[in-house]
Structure formats: structure tokens, C-alpha cells
């Protein structure tokens, strides 16, 4: 069964207090808020709960957030005992930035798309935590989780979200591709490409947790978990995981492998 999770976190310190944005790993974490699709519940994890958070994340098939690759994941990394960069992430910012050509805030997108906006700022949450107003921090964090979930649901269903121009106030549409690829469909496309000896165009998430990259691959061998082939992007032979492929499409390009050449020589 697939298990999608939406998350957001709040920090202990501001960028000014840790020497700038290059020290994101020093910001610290106060709380991590999550939404679990399987149980339709929200939950907040504090530091003493991070072992349970690790187990929770490890059991997820897809972890959704906003600007999590550049912020939440590197902030969280020093505080958990596993490699968060290998998690199956969907960062909504990736498609937004790709479509708009620049970064757009969650507040802007949520307001323009679903008519909801943030109730405060991350700096407010830092101050609240220091004042002992923990419940307010948790509520604020979960509100961001809810905004992220609702934005994701809209974009997944419609294939686009809206943002509002800062200069003109005009509302513009941004195409997004957030619908999960069915594992069976991806595997079927890859297998057909291999059988037909046709290059497959894939979107691939590497184990390093980087943004997805578009690749052309000539598949030489495939099983239920991995496939091996010539990666045109790297100009080298590579092994890929099936789970890392978010989309796959057979192209018109054909190729041959050593077995084909040997069979032709024998015949």
C-alpha cells in the first residue's frame, strides 16, 4: 500500500543567528508537523519523538513538502539517525520554479490557488517557542502542512496552480505534474521499451535527493526493482532503481545490445 506524507518544520534559530543561509544545518528544529494520508490525521513531533519520526518517514512511499530540498531536509538532517536525503521526496517548489522561472512562496500560491494564506511567519514561531508558547508553534506548523496538502491536492487534480504577480497583481497559471506515477505503469513502460529496443525518456530522482532529471536511457537489462542501461545524459552505463522513476515514455529512437548482435551473427 502506498503511504503519502506531507510535512513541514519550524526552526530554533534564524539565518541571522547562524551566519546566513549557507549554514542552514545549524538552524535547529523545534517541531516537525506531518499529515498522514493513510490515517487522515495530523501529528506533531518534538525532538524526543524523532526516533518515531524516522520510522514514520522510512515507511512512506512519498514525502511531500514545499521547498523541502533546500530548507527542511538539510535542517532536519543533523537531528535524525538516517540519511534524509534518500527519502522519496516530492518538493512542490521544483515544478513551481520550473514553470515560473523563479521561486514563489507558499503563501502566494495558496492565496492565489485555494484562497488561504499563512497566519504568520517562521520568525514568529521562533519567538513563540522561546516564550514557551509551544502550542501556538505547533498550530502554526500544522497550518503550513495543511496549506501544502491542499495546494498539492489542487495541483495533482488540475495539473496547475496559480500565483499572483507582485508587480501587477495579476493571477497566472503554472503547470505542475504532481500526480503519482503508478509503479506498475512505469515498470510496464520500461519493460516494453526494453523488449522493443527503444530508448525510454524518464524523469529520475537520484538517491542523493536532488531534483528530478530528464534522461534518455537504452535499457540493457531489467527486473522488478532495478534496470541497467546506457544513460545518454551521463554518456555511460548506469544502474537505476524502478522506484526512482517518476515518469517514463517510450521514444522512437531504437538501439541494439550485444545479445542482438550475437544472434544476428549466428543466424
From TrEMBL:
SUPFAM superfamilies: Ribonuclease H-like. It comes from the Bacteria. Pfam families: RNase_H_2, WYL. Residues 185-249 form the WYL domain. Gene3D superfamilies: Ribonuclease H-like superfamily/Ribonuclease H. Residues 29-153 form the YprB ribonuclease H-like domain. InterPro entries: RNaseH-like_sf (IPR012337), RNaseH_sf (IPR036397), WYL_dom (IPR026881), YprB_RNase_H-like_dom (IPR038720). GO terms for molecular function: nucleic acid binding. This is Uncharacterized protein. It comes from Candidatus Ryanbacteria bacterium RIFCSPHIGHO2_01_45_13. The lineage of its organism: Bacteria, Candidatus Ryaniibacteriota.
